Amino acid sequence: MALTSLKDRVQAVASSASHDDIEHSRGEDVEETPAGHDAQSAVVAEWLGRYRADVEASLPKHISADLFFAALRPVLPKLRGCTRASVLQSVITCARFGLIPDGQQAVITADDRIATFVVTYHGYVELMYRSGLVKSVVTGLVYEGDEWSWEPTAPAPLDFTHRPAFLAPKKDRGEPLFAYAFAWLDGGARSAVAVVTREDAEEIRDEFSRAYQRAEKNGQKNSLWHTRFADMHLKTAVRRMAKLVPKSAELRALVEVEQAAEDGKPQILAAIDPETAALEAEARQAAKAAEASQDRPAPRLPVKKGRRGRAKPRHRNRDRKQR
Questions:
Q1: Strands (DSSP E) along 151-248, which ranges?
Q2: What is the end-to-end Cα distance of the chain in Å, rounded?
Q3: Three-class HEC string of 46-101
Q4: Do the beta carbons of residue 68 and residue 95 sit within 8 Å?
Q5: How many CB atoms lie within 10 A of CB 107?
Q6: pTM given for the model
Q7: What would the pLDDT profile of 43-80 be if each residue is shown by its tens digit?
């Protein structure tokens, strides 16, 4: 099915639900999966049989469909309490960015009966690399037992150093002090260093993460901020660093997609389509090729020589009379 009719397909999936459910209301139209391994496998097979073509059409050409579905299969049973429309939208949104829902690049999680696509800091870094605008990304956590220095006014790379005490016992490294991230750009320049203290990360979590707030309120404590705090801390640093580097259309759309989830809106409406991403990639490559051609020295024209070598200057007649 064409991507242009995807919105109609999603609404058809939730045809038995109310309009509020399509807009991600946490209520009816919940996909219930029977207990038991065989029953779950049958439900997964039925879901993939119905929507595989839509998901494949959303994947960029360089992403293996088999790899994507292999990672998706164990995820679908965990979304059995979510609305059918939200499951379809979250999966297709993940596919459009070409990220694998394997827990490393991206996660599709159940957030109060709504399936939600969440990108990890690895996913952000992956999209930066694909853009061709970023050559290398460095990120990490600084612990109490590590050696480090940060002098923002010093020239790069002398402004920041980190020597992890990775050989020391884990208990001796102490607690994490802050997360950092910086990038080396195409052309050799380096971005500024983005630093996020643990206190900063907790304030951002408490104020902006609705998933964390709901998990706290329900007493479940199952949000990613609960289960993978270090990864979310690093992601916060990477997202802050992303504001300091050139961004592709995919990276800009990714920020909007995550904001849509926080606002309770369908993420797929903010996701970039593969055709737009491909066109932008081609435009970047063409611009880069044009710049490279201008940097090359002009070719030297061949010098045509006579048969007897370099011609001698002729003496003028007036010069002969003067002799």
A1: 160-163, 176-185, 194-197
A2: 96
A3: HHHHHHHHHHHHHCCCCCCHHHHHHHHCCCHHHHCCCEHHHHHHHHHHHHHCCCCC
A4: yes
A5: 21
A6: 0.75
A7: 788 999 999 999 999 999 999 999 999 999 999 999 98
